[in-house]
Structures
1.
Amino acid sequence: MVWELQNSRQLRNHQFTVIGANNSTIIYATLICKPVNGVKILDPVLSVKSPTGITKFDDDSYTAGCNHFFSSKVLFSSGEVSNGIWDAWASGYQGLGDEVGPYRLDVYLSGAGSLKRGGVHIPPSVKQGAQIVAVYVEIYEGATSWDIRQLNDKVEKFRCILGVYALKQCLLEHAKDAALEDALEGLKKENMRIANDPPRTDYMYKFSLPSPSNIQPNNNSLLEQQRAEFLNALMDSKILLDAYVTSVERFQGAMIDGESEYVVIQSQEVQKYLGLLNENQNRLSNITNSLHMYLIEHESEINSSLLTYQEQLLSNGFSTEEITALQNAGYTTQGIDELKTTILALNSQNTTKLIQSLGNLTSGITEYDQTMGEHRLAVEIFVNDQHSPIQPNGQASGQVIITGTCGLTFPDGNSVNYGSLIPNSISPQVTLNMTNTGTVPATLQVSGSDWLDGSSNPQMFVNRTHYNVTSGTYVQKSPLQSFDQILTNSFNPATILETFWQLQAILMNPSFIGTTTQTMDFTTIC
């Protein structure tokens, strides 16, 4: 980032913003002074101040003067660089007076992160949204913790039957009984050992899903839309967890009663809700990641907003709307009081706790998805094995497994062209069509790269691209990531899958002009 300054009056203050830095990031600033008619300009001292108040300056030029071969330098090493608004200025210039010049001020960033000229402008609506980010992070952690613990308990107990106990092997061991009902008798003992987890006797019914959550944003700001989507995904997750747990308990009840028909039906229900739960967790992971990025990019502003919110909370307590949201999330009166204490105890000068909470939440969802993936595979084995013939004693049989295939082709071409965009603008929606060339349905995953220029230098982050299998606005689509994400669990053969893509041209280097490219990698799993 470069400022070309015509005279020494322009040295007095310049701002720039650091975004996405980490402990490896380095900031290096130089002030180059150009001589006027061969006369050296004495005593320019470059000073740089970080958002955390660290100020560094270089006064070597007091003795050496300033010419083409010398500059005033400031270095912020690894661990000293923080996100937020920085100040750079020069002082002590005596030389030839205010009209001396010209100068050149350079600021370089090495490592993670990017620079923006000037301070970041935060619209008032975003400021209001930032004040309640802490509340909703705590709401999510509190509202889901019990459900996740309950679900994990049931997963482990259920896998004890389907995974560790290996249902397929169990059926083979009981093959001499020549009937599924007899095989189920051998599993009753396993089910009866499940403590504090009563099976349900209404296994002849399927769970009836209510309508999806439809919380609307209070305004059109990006953060407010993300907040509404975050809560919708959270509430849908709770509904799907309930459906999943209910189906597991009905499955267990059918097992104990030896009702093989309903064992199959409820195991299929478990499989269905695991798929829906996985899709919703992917959605929740994406929106959580977006909130995480927002916190990182606006850390300095949120520090101030959080302090304001704490003052309001201390004086007035939670609003009626916030109390309703907390109660809907399962909070008791005591839990709400404890949450208030927790928020007031947050360090108003540092949002690290909130950023780490969302980062840990994103990682936790990923680990949770992996557990669900293993469990889902076990359920699929169970559903398939319910239809495996059990041969009576004295017979032999041949066996072959015919496996299906899946593949991918782009019937209308594999190029997504967003046209020409100005910085920060959002492209029109672009369609990319795909076809499963195989014989069985597949799971379709996608990942991508950063946007690179002709010299393979990154100019935009990968997640500036958004996508979905349904048409919608940019914020309704999922951010593309460098790791595999599920695009759809139902990539069916011989049909065209429409996918919808948009790009917001937020540049790492705001002065960049030119062509950039991004690679998207698609994987089919069947």
2.
Amino acid sequence: MLKKYGIDDSKLFKVVVVATMSSGKSTFINALIGQDILSTQNQACTARTIQILDNDKLSTYRAYVEYNDGKNLIVDLKNRDIIDSFNNDDTIKDILIEGNIKRIRNRNRAVVLIDTPGTNFSGDDTHQKETYKFISTLEDGLILYVINATQFGVNDDFKLMTHIKERIESSNKKLKILFVVNKIDEFDVEKESVQEAMNSIYKYIVSNGIENPTIIPISALAAKLFRQGINGEKLTRKEIREFKDYFDLFKSNDYNLSKFSKIDSIEKKHVDIGGESFYEDDLLSAIDNTGIILVEKIIEDLLVDETSTYIPKVNFYVNQNNSYIDDIIHELLKVYNDIEVFDEVIELKSYIENRNINYSAYEKIQKTYDEAHLKSKEIMLKYDINKGENYYEVPKIIKNAIKGIKRIIKEDSNIIFNI
């Protein structure tokens, strides 16, 4: 469906969420999103995939709906009932959701979360066929396999893992997999060992032929409720009770499901849930303990690994026909590109068509490139140390470098041609 909207498939990083029924897959996706978008009712499940495109510039979520008769509709997702109504509508062919997945930032490729039908839905085997068909089209990206901590080891999991394993092998391992063990909060730490459960799940996954699996225990429902509270979303009475119970559980380090570092250096804000006040930093720590943040970190790390981290050091050979400029732009675009950058490049190339550039201008251009290289390298070194927000300064450096080169060429052209 994304191609219909002019979105280049090569510019997408696909994160495909798969599971058998009752694993909490939709709740997990809602936790990543931070609000109720997808239905969590089994009877509402359909045999269609729903794609959620991450757009860091949007403040709300909206759905693009395509009907079987060719009609299209754009709907703001203001409440949790809208997608439920779409799920029950057999006249709908495809649904694309777009919004800002706040804890995941896009790099060279935009993240698209893909919710697939549960593969063992008893009411209809087309659910399994649809999911298997979609998996067979994947060339790269990430599969998030959600497992119910209390019900793993069923035959349906074996079938799904086998199918995924074959696809990963055929992709030359460009396709990655991450196992998310949900509902781990149902274990009583005083009576049952979470570590023992994780060891059993690890052995089960390995026995199905998947070597060295990455497995993260999480509580999707707790993470979702905490984020809804921080976002100021109104909770039902039942959700308020669950919120308070989960907060009592996850504020303790006994239930720290993730080794991901704590979020600190934030202002002491508070939110009101059911007439009781909770500090936001306590909620963030509780979210950290649910394991959801580690899942997001792995997605982000995969995105970072896919691209050059900083502008390389290159001394460009001054040659004829302005291919010198093309070489420089090529190096910059290898690190980062988007629509704004391409607009700058197109305008830049309009300046250099059929023009000879002064040698002094070449020296200035090389200096501009070298400065961009040093700035980006310094930023990425800091990023590697503290994993801060500095990474997002690199695209700005590239844009400014291209603008600087354009300015140098324009000034040089003014001198030569007196225009």
3.
Amino acid sequence: ERGHLTSEAVAVLVCIVLTSTMVVEPVMLWSYNRMLKPSQPYDRRTVSGLKQDDDFRVISCIQSPRNIPGMTNILDISRVSHVFALHLMELIGRTSAMLIVHESNTESAASPFYNKTRAQSDQIVTAFENYERRHNGATSVQTLTIVSPMETMHEDVCNLAEDKQVSVILLPFHKQQGMDGKLEDDGNMEIRSVNQNVMARAPCSTAILIDRGIGMIPVSGSS
């Protein structure tokens, strides 16, 4: 009769459902595990795997302008070919994270920063433009800002490292040297968790810069 299934049709439908369950579930589990599996580094994306003629590409993470002198001095003596200066900024009052690419001599209309935050970004951009100028084209620099929740900021850093195929991520230590020479908390302990998560999940080498005054030492090069 119309509207009723025969026993043969019911049997066929049951077989289809069982087959779909047996096939789809393993495929979904495999895909999910692939998503959770961290990126595996390969030789060309680690410092130890670099060859003499390889590009030395580095992400230099900047939490505040205080990190700039130490970072640029380390880069000076490392002879890198590409620097991606990355300003780490906590996401406040927005629903989605942002990656802002700073272009030379241009204003970013998409930058929703308050004056203090914008001033920090401008200071970082200017410092790394000067760094690039000092090296007369031997090192290319791109300055970016990540605006992201601290809990997931490491994912954005690692994704950028993957995209730019860098060999090392330089991270700022979560403490700064005080006037008495001792290391003091800089008021943002969450950066420690960001550092730990980046080191655990990075697709390349990682390093933490503990600035004990190297940023105040002038570095001279020889031609």
